[in-house]
Amino acid sequence: MTASFQLRVIDEERNTVFISDYSKRVEIGRQDRGEPGPYSQRFEADRWRLVIAPLTEDTVSRHHLSLEPISENRFRVRNGSKAIPIRLTTGEEVKPGEAKDLPIPSQLMLGRKMIRVVAPESIGSEKLQELPEATLPPGFSFDGLATRQGGIQMPQLTGNDPAGVIRWLRAVMEVLQAASTSSDFFEKAAHAAAEMVGLDSVSVWLLKGEEWVLEASQATPRLSAALTRTVTGCASSTPTRPSCAPPPATARAAGRGSTSS
To answer: In terms of Cα–Cα distance, which of 33, 8, 30 is closest to 84?
Structure first.
């Protein structure tokens, strides 16, 4: 059986804009001068050439990515860019000039688009069911979740709504991904817990040496003034990072960190 795969291109609005099967190497990149725009393709010598970005897009090189089937369930990805890495949705990267063998299925980010490589028989197969939207990698925002602007709007669940549950879980994951890729992890985690669960206040404590240190806190407006004035049991060393005696027993039992409300 000839090795092959199916390639799908998903744009920034999570629409599938291109689908094609390949049994030979395919080179993917930005439009060149005199070349048709996205999503034109042509066969050149021993490979396919696929354009996925216009001439003006600077996040994709002209010969940025090549994909080649090497077996029934694996393919080889090669980064032809001299400066721009290719991100995988697993968190790995294919560095400029590097090649890697990956399993089928896999997903890669190229500029503002996602490249999804799947088995060619996946379309029309009754055994495989897929979500209508592409999975987002860490750091990419969910439409209903403005974590980077400080507000959180959770999707509403009504009755028997499996799709709503998926949207809700994705929103939760976006909160965790947004926090884990930024320097203010604890502030974002506390903010998310307060708004998503509806708590009056949330505090994050870390055990540093022999002392419990308040790392972050969030509170409703009516409690904010009280929290900034004093933290029970603490001798404030700084306005925002007092060093304290151990918090309640439930926090101590958590080990080296806790969240309390």
So the answer is: 30
